[in-house]
Design goal:
9 helices, mainly alpha, 0% strand, single chain
Length: 178
Amino acid sequence: MRKDTEDIKIEKVAAQVQEAVAEAMFVLGTLHEDRENYPEARRLYQTAAKEGHHEAMVALGVLAELGLGQRRDNRLARRWYRKAAHSGSAWGSSCLGFLYETGRGGRKYHALAARHYLMGAQKRHPWCMVQLAMLYRSGKGVRRDLAKAAWLLARAAEAGNAYAQDYLAKQATQGGIL
């Protein structure tokens, strides 16, 4: 059975409404989180996450990681960050990379941290660029490459990341790049 143009229009509008509802749930969740009503924030984020809202997935990870309105659970945070990262969230990639780098919620995996920072850096997420640069600088999880580290720090600084700007300024006054 072939769909006519009206059926296609209805499907498109329904998808847009579903996306708008997920965004509204996420925004409401942030408002409740700001008021420290974490159980309600979590409920709203879960509703949005079920609809595929990746920033709601990250927010659920943050609540779990910090123990806001629940006991601290870095394993649960990792699961939410992983889901967000794999659905396209640079913020999710950044958070997941950090948990792998520090070993929160499991063992340290510098190579996985680098992979997730790279996913975020490819989406021009400045903090992912900084974290990946530091791994290239130290050689943890990746082959040490000071040129790549400097390039990533410069891109993060250009994107307005204050840490990268300060780091590069300090290095310049000390006569080196890294």
